[in-house]
Write a structure and sequence with these properties.
- The complex is a heterodimer.
- By secondary structure, chain A is mainly α.
- Chain A contains 16 helices and no strands.
- The two termini of chain A are about 45 Å apart.
- Chain B is an alpha/beta fold.
- Chain B contains 19 helices and 14 strands.
- Chain B has a five-stranded mixed sheet with strand order 2-1-3-13-6, sandwiched between helices. In chain B, strands 10-7-11 form a three-stranded antiparallel sheet. A two-stranded antiparallel sheet of chain B has the order 4-5.
- In chain B, helix 10 packs across helix 18.
- The chains are: A mainly alpha, B alpha/beta.
- The interface between A and B is large, with 38 and 50 residues.
């Protein structure tokens, strides 16, 4: 390229630096990366580093604060009792809902993978819980679980499943957390279903035909073909769902806001409680970041597992 | 919340905005000039003793200015309309464009916190309870304007004063009191053989039992995370039995006491007798339950009665209102308190202050309370005889809402309002203590509830300010 430039006739102007950059494959590659890097820095790296700084500081909403090391984390683990409850609830909430979302999502995907009338319409409709704004659907659930006007209780009583007036869903510690899990599962399982459905449709049909020729039962086909072939999709979906559920704020905040007596606080709502109404934004940031090391390990392990050959 | 002088923090600066070199140099120059001028002033006979408090000056609205005011959505819709009418009237009179933004009260703090952190947003924000103590450095000093109002309207109501004034400086202009009293169904009470609303908490227990025996809807109240109704119920119960979250020094946690246990014992007895508590209820829920004929009585603002009288007309004839019952230590109440802060980041502070003075003008304010039908009470002495409560043709059923204003206290009382009392309030520590004790039909573990409340309060009050 340089030789060509040097041998150019006097009428042709020498290339400018930006032209050389655009003609260089490596240079152009880096140039095309710039917008992505900028977006990542502005919307991901900066907020994360800022959050990290806040968690290590005594910052208040109207006070930039000063560096206090791990003081906020120490306060949470040794003094702030509702934090431990929120931490426990977060693990319980994530664990239980993920199991249900995976099971229901798998069932939904297997059903939607069959041929039936209005298949496309049903597939689109099944995504509705995941598409509609969370706060709106959660408010609808709030009405459905309301002790005075509950349609859930009305139906359960008329089906003779429970005696009148039925459970006070948000009024007791056990049913309140269960209600949160029901709503989160309802909202989250279509994501599993559609993702798994996409995975199912990439499995070659001839694998199943060969298995049938060999006399494999439906269960054997599922465990020896479907599940192994779905492994990468399942791992990624499980990872995303786990991260999103660990950080869920909208459902617990709208439905119970921690009541009764802090029994339904999760880390996100407890972080909000300290950070926004309480004004202790540094403490709130620390609560938000408590699970970061665990989630980082989880992400790394999942990515390694996804890349591992079968 | 005060800035720390040892780390060079300047409480007057806007949050997160570093000083430019020019600003730093000019500030340093001014500081140096000030230091140099001190001895000179003293030498000339000047000194601290001769500095007189300046007389309040009237803020002037700037023609062509544009300001925004953030407020809650009023529980009496007509009051919102009257408020906007007055705001527009001010705008027309002074050539100012004023936009009123509304959001539900439980979401107001989130928006306020965002505005305070970002240093941008509404020029005036309605501060609930002790928010001026949480956001002190974002709130403009309005001492001058409050002093003007004091000259015109008399003394500030005690709770508004305590919430608005931080370290001797007014950070908000007192705006209103939303009195909380009991609304009850006279027909159900008569059916149960009751001639009036209970005057003491013990009488309330007896009334709850009689209502239950008569098979009519119960007396019900939230013990959940409702920013208004839960606090206005359980703090007065605690106080009226002598219980306190913290001492008057604002440091020593005193919740773990026999007085607190006495208050909880009353609550457990009342629940066992027939009082129904709802940990899942938020502020609108008891209103809905009352209008749906599901309960006989509840503690609330006057909106239940006002909306029955003005809109629904279902139970207005059989609804009456009553003052909060008293306990062994006396009558205590808690009301919702709102004050307006002019935000420091506002480029139109003078116009914002002028608007607030206009809204607090006696004639204007009385029009507002008249339209609100007594849902609001004024925060200055001049409004103590508000015709909405005292005119010959005033609705006598509204009188209890005026009577609960004077005995009102604030969360954390007798400690002065502070960042810590505000945090204890927003974490619903007192309400949670009662809710935990009242679970399983009034058979909750009292010791565990009290110790948990103590531990949570200690966590808040032990954190460095």
């Amino acid at each position: 390229m340089a030789i060509l430039t040097e041998r150019a006739s006097p009428g042709i102007r020498p290339r400018r630096p930006y032209q050389r950059l655009l003609n260089s494959e490596q240079g152009l590659g880096y140039l095309l990366l710039v917008p992505t890097v900028l977006i990542l820095v502005v919307f991901l790296a900066y907020p994360f580093v800022f959050g990290l700084w806040l968690s290590l500081s005594s910052a208040e909403l109207t006070d930039a604060g000063r560096f206090i090391g791990l003081g906020n984390f120490k306060f949470e683990f040794t003094i702030d009792r509702p934090f431990i409850q929120a931490l426990t609830n977060t693990f319980l909430y994530t664990g239980v809902t993920t199991v249900f979302k995976l099971s229901l999502g798998m069932g939904m995907a297997l059903l939607l993978n069959q041929s039936f009338p209005f298949q496309r319409f049903v597939r689109a409709a099944a995504l509705l819980p995941w598409i509609i704004p969370t706060v709106l659907s959660t408010l609808a659930w709030k009405w459905m679980f309301d002790p005075t006007f509950s349609v859930v209780n009305w139906a359960a009583v008329h089906l003779h499943l429970v005696s009148y007036p039925g459970p006070n869903w948000f009024g007791s510690t056990t049913t309140a957390l269960a209600a949160l899990m029901i709503v989160n599962t309802w909202r989250g399982f279509p994501f599993f279903g559609v993702s798994i459905l996409a995975g199912l449709q990439t499995i070659p049909v001839d694998l199943y035909e060969a298995a049938r020729v060999d006399g494999a039962s439906r269960w054997n086909q599922f465990t020896h073909i479907t599940l192994p072939m779905l492994r990468p999709v399942l791992l990624v979906v499980l990872l995303l769902s786990t991260i999103l559920t660990f950080a869920d704020f909208q459902v617990p905040f709208v439905l119970t806001n921690g009541a009764p007596f802090n029994s339904t606080h999760v880390l996100a709502t407890w972080a909000y409680q300290w950070g926004v109404p309480g004004g202790a934004i540094g403490l709130g940031a620390a609560i938000s970041l408590v699970l970061f090391p665990l989630l980082a390990i989880l992400v790394a392990a999942t990515l390694v597992a996804v890349r591992r050959p079968d | 919340m005060a800035g720390r002088p040892d780390d060079g923090f300047d409480p007057e600066r806007r949050l997160w905005t570093p000083w430019s070199r020019r600003k730093f140099l000019s500030a340093a120059g001014l500081a140096a000039a000030g230091l140099a001028a001190g001895p000179l002033i003293e030498a000339c006979g000047g000194g601290e003793s001769t500095v007189a408090t300046p007389s309040p000056t009237e803020p002037k609205a700037r023609q062509g200015a544009s300001i925004r005011l953030l407020q809650w959505v009023h529980f009496v819709p007509a009051a919102d309309n009257e408020f906007v009418r007055q705001v527009n009237e001010f705008g027309d009179k002074f050539g100012v464009k004023v936009q009123v933004e509304r959001i539900t009260a439980d979401q107001l703090q989130t928006k306020t916190a965002a505005a305070v952190t970002a240093g941008t947003g509404a020029d005036i924000i309605q501060m609930q309870y002790g928010w001026p103590h949480l956001y002190t450095q974002a709130c403009e000093d309005v001492t001058n304007e409050v002093n003007l109002l004091k000259q015109r309207l008399g003394a500030v109501a005690t709770v508004n004063d305590a919430f608005s004034k931080v370290d001797g400086v007014y950070r908000a202009v007192p705006y209103t009191v939303v009195p909380n009293a009991w609304s009850f169904r006279t027909d159900y009470f008569q059916k149960a053989g009751l001639t009036g609303f209970p005057k003491t908490w013990d009488e309330l227990t007896q009334a709850a039992a009689k209502l239950k025996a008569a098979g009519v809807p119960p007396i019900s109240q939230t013990d959940g995370h409702a920013y208004g109704d839960s606090l206005t119920m359980w703090n007065p119960v605690l106080w009226s039995y002598g219980g306190r979250e913290v001492n008057a020094d604002g440091k020593t946690v005193t919740i773990n006491s026999k007085e607190t246990r006495a208050a909880i014992a009353w609550a457990q007895g009342a629940v066992k007798a027939g009082l129904v508590v709802h940990p899942e209820w938020l502020d609108p829920d008891n209103n809905q339950a009352y209008h749906a004929d599901r309960i006989s009585a509840t503690l609330n603002g006057a909106s239940i009665y006002i909306r029955e009288k003005n809109e629904f007309h279902h139970f207005d004839k059989v609804t009456d209102n009553a003052v909060v019952p008293a306990g062994p230590k006396g009558l205590f109440t808690m009301n919702l308190i709102f004050n307006h802060a002019v935000m420091k980041y506002s480029p139109e502070k003078e116009t914002a202050k002028a608007l607030l003075l206009y809204l607090m003008d006696k004639a204007n304010y009385l029009k507002y309370t008249a339209v609100a039908s007594g849902y609001n009470a004024g925060p200055f002495a001049a409004f103590d005889n508000d015709p909405v409560f005292f005119a010959p043709d005033a609705d006598p059923k509204m009188k209890p809402f005026q009577q609960v204003v004077q005995p009102g206290k604030w969360p954390g009382w007798p400690a002065p309002p502070s960042k810590q009392t505000a945090q204890a309030q927003t974490q619903f520590i007192v309400a949670d203590m009662f809710a935990k004790s009242l679970q399983d039909n009034g058979n909750g573990d009292v010791e565990s509830a009290v110790k948990e409340a103590e531990s949570r309060l200690q966590a808040i009050f032990a954190r460095p300010a």
